[in-house]
Amino acid sequence: MRYFARRLVHALVLLGALSFVSFLLLEAAPGDYFDEMRLNPEISDQTIARLRASYGLDRPLLVRYERWLRSTMHGQMGYSVAYNEPVWPILRVRARNTLVLAGTATALAWLAAIPFGILSAVKHDSLGDRIGGFVVSAVLAVPELVICLAMLVLALRTGWFPVGGMESAKIAGSSFWSRLGDTGYHLVLPALGLALITFPVMLRHVRSAMIESLESPFLRVARAHGIPRMRLLFRYALPAAANPLISLFSFSIGTMLSSSLLVEVVLSWPGLGPLLVESTLSRDLYVVVGGVMLSSMFVIGGSLLADLALFASDPRIRVRG
Amino acid sequence: MRVVYLRGLINLVAAAVLSSMFAAGAHAEDLLVTDNSPGHRGGRLVMALRSEPKTLNPVLAADETSRNLLECLTADLIHINRRTQKTESALAKSWSVSADGRRYTVHLRHGIRFSDGAPFDADDVVFTFQVYLDEKIDSPQRDLLVIGGKPIAVKKVDSYTVSFDLAQPYAAAERLFDGLPMLPRHLLQKQYQEGDFSSAWSLSTPQTELAGLGPFRMKEYVPGDHVLLERNPYYWKQDRNGVRLPYLDQIEFLFVSSEDAQLVRFLSGDTDILNRFGPDDFALLEKQAVAKGYHAYDLGPGLEYNFLFFNLNDLSSKDSPGLAMKQAWFHDVRFRQAVSGAIDRGAIVGLVYNGRATPLWGPVTPGNKLWFDPQIISSTKSLDRSRELLRSAGFSWRSDGTLVDSKGQEVEFSILTSSSNAQRLQTATIIQEDLRQLGMNVHVVSLQFGAVVDRLLKTHDYEACIMGLVSGDADPTPDMNVWLSSGATHLWHPNQSHPATAWESQIDALMQKQLVTLGYAERKRLYDRVQEIVAENLPIICLVSPDILVAARDQVRNFEPAILDPYTIWNIEQLYIQ
Amino acid sequence: MRYRNKLGAAVLFLMLIHGLALFAGFFAPYNFAEQTRDRPFAPPTRLHFVDDQGRTHLVPFVYDAADMSDSSLHAPVTRSLRPIQFLVRGTPYKIAGVFSANVHLFGVQEPARIFLFGTDALGRDQFSRFLYGAQISLMAGSLAAGLSVALGGALGAVAGFYGGHIDECVTRMTELFLAAPWLYLLLGVRAALPLHVPEWQSFVLLVGVLGLIGWARPARLVRGIVLSVKERQFVLAARGFGASDAHLLCRHVLPETYGVILTQFSILVPQYVLAEVTLTFFGVGVGEPVPSWGSLLSVLQQYSVLVSYWWMFIPAIFLVPIFFAYFQISDALQEHFQSVPL
Predict the structure, then answer these.
(1) Which of B42, B291, B488, B517 has the lowest tally of Cβ within 10 angstroms?
(2) Do A211 and C172 touch (CB under 8 A)?
(3) Domain span at residue B118?
């Protein structure tokens, strides 16, 4: 338990370091939010200079960082230059939506990757495995954006799913369950798209880990003992393969989040994606830092979870700690 | 008996008098009668926006989406009709100009009310301008209202009359009022006096604190998803038949950040209007138009002009010998003319824009009805003429075709462009190939937009650049800072303390003169001369202007798209659904 | 060993592709920058064996420019035959940037054109661009993936093996790395570089950036494996025999990680091919008109192109067997290292 208390402290320190590093990096890039205004002949340089001063963008880095820290303590996380509002309320709603999407897609992807991975590992080198490998290569070769557009076109042609958004137009006053159902209905396409994007890599890893596990000596001995196939697979091979898979899970959160950005933009899911893309390109400083902090909190949380699971599942680590 | 009758009679008379007073009061509204084809009320219009609006505060809104949204929620004193490109009366019923052109007296409509029912009068106007001109608020619109170095003086004459005093006569003064929405004093004055105006009217402000004079008012905002507007029952326009505008019950703006997703959703019937799409999609849209029940419109060139220009900054204080050597070429007008002559504008129009663009030889496009100068010579590509010009400037060719200058240096330079604009990147590639035929070795450098602006306006570390500007208005005045040598957006050599060349000082004089000249014919003559000087000296080599492309479902009636922003919804109060 | 066949086939295939890339100038009929401006988005040129008169030719031929879909306009006009010629002299090119040549494998006489994969928006031959694009993408992709797994593997192994502070340090670094917005550093670095970066420098920059993007994940995975392996019997035994740390690492611990490393490598190469497009957007990467597979595929990101011009998909289709070959190699190598007895 001391181990995890230590990890928590480390996580906080990490977040702090991350915030400072983000500030440094943002400083490195040329330009700022008012670039577009500078190309507008109707706005004078003095106005732009005054605007920058009013948002505190002309202050030195450390002063700005300190003000941001203070603002974060108050739960505001700085001020958005574009929205003229504190950052946290803007992020909060959208972060929740992104979590819903990413969570559903993760579940879908793993639910598909584990059985297919095990299957292809067991039937390793057969025709089915080869074909499967080819299909996976095909899906991997298709750019993410094209997969998202394909989902969009699918919705358009078949009309089975709504094309974008999180709720239908007239749903506002209905009951909780019908609203939940409506959200779920809108969730299908984006979650499917996201799962499709992240699924090939997971499949490859599950397959690779299972193959390794199946070839290991202790398993061969167990097989020689006559232990039935199914039991062999699930009770012996799978837990042994768990180690890399758990590490992978903590990573899949990171990739899931970055791919979800794209899915949200194309399929108009009201998550962090469109907001962060716009803020990144327009250099809305504190929204970007806020977004970075938020996504790293998810990643660090996932990593913590993975370490916990690793600790619990692999006794070899527990002994040595 | 008679007493009773008398009292009843008195009551009746009193009632009659009172009701006629009320009736008079009700008809005391000075409604504007529009001349569109009459429609009927009802229906909801759905449209997609490419980015989310950032604020509902008209004084602070700088991005296009917020301004488009505010167009539906607010109204100005004098409005520019997007179709005719001329001014017409809006909240101001009439106005008069003093003989010296320095005083505008505006007469407001009587009986107009805000969307929450509060009355609108001259106090609101005075308050509005006070806010716009306040230096502590830093409104992007403030600079427009500073004329001759002094801000406009706004005075209330009576409840429905306001006077505006300018430091010098200003030709485009009327047009200034367009896009300056009137603010409700009763809702915002308190916050303004407390110094908290910057946080007023953000997107999370509750509806009870919002009010405007536009055809619609806010109903619902779901972050990341959509904005819903509903009819403003107090709107001050009606059609010929006396039906109060707007016709539509509601408008829904969806946030769809991907252009392709917008296209797909329009095709599937989710949205009713497609506002400005790319030239690559036009062929696709046209093909399915009849089957799916909509129309795709190519409105011709808008006010955007794309151009190539060279770095003509004075870099003697900086230490970059490479750039200095190249500037020797850039400064020679024959070099620039040779480059201009070698560019295949037809190929740019045909390949990059699929034919949906117009070649340009000057910054004013044919879409600008009042100010376009057809006299500017539009020459076709001629490599021979370019070679002649280069030869006369001291350039020559090696045996392998490479161009060298009089000192024997190979002619090699880079064209900078922003990576977020795919069309400009393709244009650069075409020009690269064109100039290769002259023996020039051209590189295309595509950087992120912020990095481009930084190099152009701050470090001046670039060689050539392809950029596009959109004039703020058809009138030449908003673009002053591009043509004045002291201007900050005089892209090729900004912020000069005094004009670097003779022709630049000529342009300065002409632009200053047209600013204060009041007659249109004389102003046109002056501005034509500016365009001619630009075409002779080529500080910018104009390339193309993309056409404005929009689409709308057939059910949307009175749809009259125009080439001025906001293109499709400028007459939103006249649109109705069949 | 059955993996030998798999390995052999895949390696042969990849060598073929790399050979094609190296001699792209020879195999491609046109230069990658050559624009045929009157034929934007032209579909692939149809090869005919039987001509209008019904005669069969051994060598396939193409028709002149008139061989477009408007054959209804001039029905009986005889179209001129342009047989495909082999080993023709054409536009000069360079092999490996050093040797000049001007012989192309095949071509047709002007004004006919042979566009095997069709053309793009500016009328440039997609087949030629695909071959030249392989030079950038394959090599940058492989080198960068190699860099990532090497760096990540090394750091992860060290972290897992030594544990303690080093482990903490490396782990925190990976987390920081994954989360921080390095994009801006990229923009900053690009701003500091001169306006036009010479080709080989931008290539090295591309490889470096791509490689540095992806080291974190292999590091974590390798660390996980090393953590559990270092306690295994055979390692303890070897240590008991007095083996040094380095020996333990290289000879005993690392081989256990090869499976994961190879899988990662085979996954990273395709990812990097596509990541290059995003980098180009931010100014790092090859500039116009030099093609790369990433830039060829980026055209597909428009709905109108996807729907109207199917031939732009062909490069994506060719990527599939290439990625599949990488997978086969990683599988085979994984088996090889598994088969090493205890």
Answers:
(1) B291
(2) no
(3) 75-202
Q: With contact defined as beta carbons under 8 Å apart, do A256 and A198 qualify?
A: yes
Q: Where does the pLDDT of residue C3 fall: very low under 50, low under 70, confident under 90, or very high at 90 and above?
A: low
Pick the residue with more confidence: C317 or A106? A106
B186's tokens = 């009763």
Partners of residue B195 in chain A, C-beta under 8 Å? none
ipTM over 0.90: no
Q: C114, C138, C166 — which closes off a domain? A: C114
Task: Enumerate the residues of chain A whose CB falls inside 8 A of the CB of residue C327.
Answer: 133, 136-137, 204
| Vertex B188: Cα angle to B186 and B193 (nearest 5) | 110
Q: Are A140 and C330 in contact (CB under 8 A)?
A: no
Bridge partners of B28? none
The tens digit of pLDDT for each residue in C141-168 reads 889 999 999 999 888 888 888 878 888 8
Claim to verify: residue C186 and residue C309 sit in the same structural domain: yes
Note whether residue C26 is domain-resident. Answer: no
Number of domains in chain C: 2
The answer, yes or no, to whether residue B13 has pLDDT greater than 60, is: no
Domain-located, residue B63 = no
For residue B470, being part of any structural domain is answered with yes
Residue B35 or A255, more confident: B35
Nearest CA in chain C to B448: C282
Query: Are both C106 and C165 inside the same structural domain?
Result: no
The per-residue pLDDT for C64 is: 65
Cα Rg of chain C (Å, integer): 25
Q: Which amino acid is at C128?
A: S
pLDDT of B381 > 80? The answer is yes
CATH of the domain at B538: 3.10.105.10
Q: Where are the beta strands (DSSP E) in A48-113?
A: 79-80, 85-86
B260 CB neighbours in chain C (<8 A) are 301-304
Which of C191, C289, C304 minimises the CB distance to B280? C304
Q: Are C178 and A252 in contact (CB under 8 A)?
A: no
**Highest mean pLDDT pick, B5-9, C67-71, C220-224, C248-252:** C220-224
Chain C contact present for B264, CB below 8 A: yes
User: Is there a single domain that holds both residue C84 and residue C142?
Assistant: no
The residues that bridge with C93 in the sheet, in sequence order, are: C101
Residues C175 and C64 grouped into a single domain: no
> Quick check: helix, strand or coil at residue C274?
helix
Query: B410 touching C, CB under 8 A?
Result: no
What is the nearest CA distance from B461 to chain C, expressed in angstroms?
A: 8
* C267–A295 CB contact, under 8 Å: no
Residues of B in contact with C308 (CB under 8 A): 283-284
**Where in chain C does DSSP place strands (E)?**
48-50, 56-63, 81-83, 85-95, 99-107
Given an 8 Å threshold on Cβ–Cβ distance, is A159 in contact with B458? no
For B505, counting Cβ atoms within 10 Å of its Cβ (0-12 exposed, 13-18 middle, 19+ buried), the class is middle
**Confidence check: pLDDT of B215 > 80:** yes
Please check whether residue A264 is in contact with residue A144, taking contact to mean a CB–CB distance below 8 angstroms. no
- Return the partners of chain B (3 or more C-beta pairs < 8 Å): A, C
Domain CATH code at residue B197: 3.90.76.10
C283 touches chain A (CB under 8 A): no
How far is the C-alpha of C315 from the C-alpha of A308, rounded, in Å? Answer: 44
**Chain A closest CA to B404's CA: distance in Å?**
34
Residue range(s) defining the domain that contains residue C107: 45-114
Q: Which chains touch C (3 or more CB pairs under 8 A)?
A: A, B
The CATH number of whichever domain residue C145 belongs to comes to: 1.10.3720.10
What would you measure as the largest C-alpha separation in chain A, in angstroms?
A: 84
Residue B374: pLDDT above 50?
Answer: yes
B229-251: average pLDDT:
92
State residue B22's pLDDT score.
45
How much is the pLDDT for C79? 63
